[in-house]
Each structure stands twice: as C-alpha cells, then as structure tokens.
Amino acid sequence: MTKLNLLDNMNKKNLKVALAAAVAFCMPTASNAQLGDLIKGAASTAVSKATGNSETGSTIANVVTSLIGTSKVSESNIIGTWNYESPCIAAESSNVLSKATAAAAASKAQTKLNDALTKAGIKPGAMKITFEKGGKATVAVGKKTVAATYKIEGSDLSLTFTKLKKTVKMNCKLSGGKLQLAMKTDKLLTFVNTVSSTAAAASSSLGTLNSLLKNVEGLYVGLQFSK
C-alpha cells in the first residue's frame, strides 16, 4: 500500500485527535503560546503515528495551523504599512487535510511557493503593502511601487491595481498581529506579475505551483505580513 493510500485509510481516531488539536492551536490566545506549541507537536505526532510517516504528519500540522480567515475584517484594523514575512499554504478547513492529494500537494507547494516569490523579489525586507484610509493602497517590491485601491467585504479583500485595472480577490485574516492574504494560484500569478519587476524569473516556478494546486479543492497560497 502506498503512503498516500495509508493517509486515506489511517486510523480515524488518531486523525480526529490530531486535527482537533491543530484547530485548537489556530485559535489566537495570547496566553497560550507555549500550550500552542505543545498542541501543534501533538497533532504532528498523532498523524505521523497513524500514517507511519513523520514528514506527512509535519505537513498536515503546519498547513492546518494556517487556515483562511472567516471573521469580518474592518478597514481600521488593516490601515498602516505591513512588511512581508513569509509565504504560507492556507486551507479552507481542517477537513481539507484529511485528503491524501491535498496533503501531498501542500508539501510540494511549500517549496515551490517560496522559490517563486524569492525569484520575484518578494522576500523579507524587500516587500511591503500599505493600506490608507479611504480605500487607497500601495504595494512595494524592491524599487517598484504600484498604486492600488482596496475594498473589504467580510473576510475578503479585493485589490485593484489602478493603471492596469486588474483586480485580485483574496482572503484576509488578522491574527496575533499578523496579516495573512491568501488566494488561489491564478490570482497569485496576476499579483506577482503586477507588483514585481522580476516576475519573468519566477514564471517557471509559478507555473509549476499553479499546476500543483489548480485542481486541489480548499488550498490557497498566502503571503504573511507583520507591522
């Protein structure tokens, strides 16, 4: 039996415990930082034991702790300048990771996403996004700055690039002083091509990433920021 089949047929009790623990970790509680680390480790260990694969257990725990946002976001909460920290793979729900194809795709996508963004100049210290009052925004990558407007509806944020008249819709999540913007891979392609002056260098990696995730339901690629 293959590792993917093992994941599909893992002991249901262990999977339930692992996912419940991982979801609990997702809840932002400032006083539970140490407890969160323990829960995350327990989730990874439980899934690893069920599958016999430590790498799969780690992948599931990491991705489950990056869920997309469901809470309403207000303009006042995102106003300011946010500095890029890291990429992330975000899931619609913990149930997504019970599927072997999603877990395998997430594992491969993490490396490809980081590679693509780095080639496009999107890396710590080189990219920031600023939201102003009244719906104006700017995205700066290296020496390139692109003007945009934004609109928030619930937990969704639409970023429209003024000159090109291209709109990228993404999920917006605020948690623990972090801002996560998660989107489908085709939207990431549009975003990177618009804001980066070296997007061509990332085209191959972005194409591979799109191929990996375009048919996987419930997975998003994300950018994480902090002030």
What percentage of the residues does DSSP assign to strands (E)? Answer: 25-35%
Q: What integer value in Å does the Rg equal? A: 18 Å
Q: What is the level-2 CATH architecture name of the largest domain?
A: Beta Barrel
For the largest beta-sheet, the strand count, sense and barrel status come to: 8 strands, antiparallel, barrel
Q: How many helices?
A: 8
In the CATH hierarchy, what is the class of the largest domain? Mainly Beta
Describe this structure in words.
This protein is an alpha+beta fold and 227 residues long. It has 2 domains: 3-64; 75-226, Lipocalin (Beta Barrel). Helices cover 44% and strands 28% of the residues. The chain is built from 8 helices and 8 strands, in the order αααααβαββββββααβ. It has an 8-stranded antiparallel β-barrel. A hairpin with a 4-residue loop joins β2 (127-131) and β3 (136-141). α2 runs antiparallel to α3 and α4 (54-64) crosses α6. It is globular. The model is unreliable at 2-57 and 59-65 (pLDDT under 50).
Outline:
The chain is of the alpha+beta class and 227 residues long. It is built from eight helices and eight strands, in the order H-H-H-H-H-E-H-E-E-E-E-E-E-H-H-E. A hairpin with a 4-residue loop joins strand 2 and strand 3.
Question: Which features does this protein show?
Answer:
227 residues, alpha+beta, Lipocalin, eight-stranded antiparallel beta barrel, globular
Topology readout:
Elements: H1 3-8, H2 12-26, H3 33-51, H4 54-64, H5 75-78, E1 80-91, H6 100-119, E2 127-131, E3 136-141, E4 144-153, E5 156-161, E6 166-175, E7 178-183, H7 185-195, H8 199-213, E8 219-226
Antiparallel strand pairs: 1-2, 1-8, 2-3, 3-4, 4-5, 5-6, 6-7, 7-8
Helix pairs in contact: 2-3, 3-4, 4-6, 6-8, 7-8
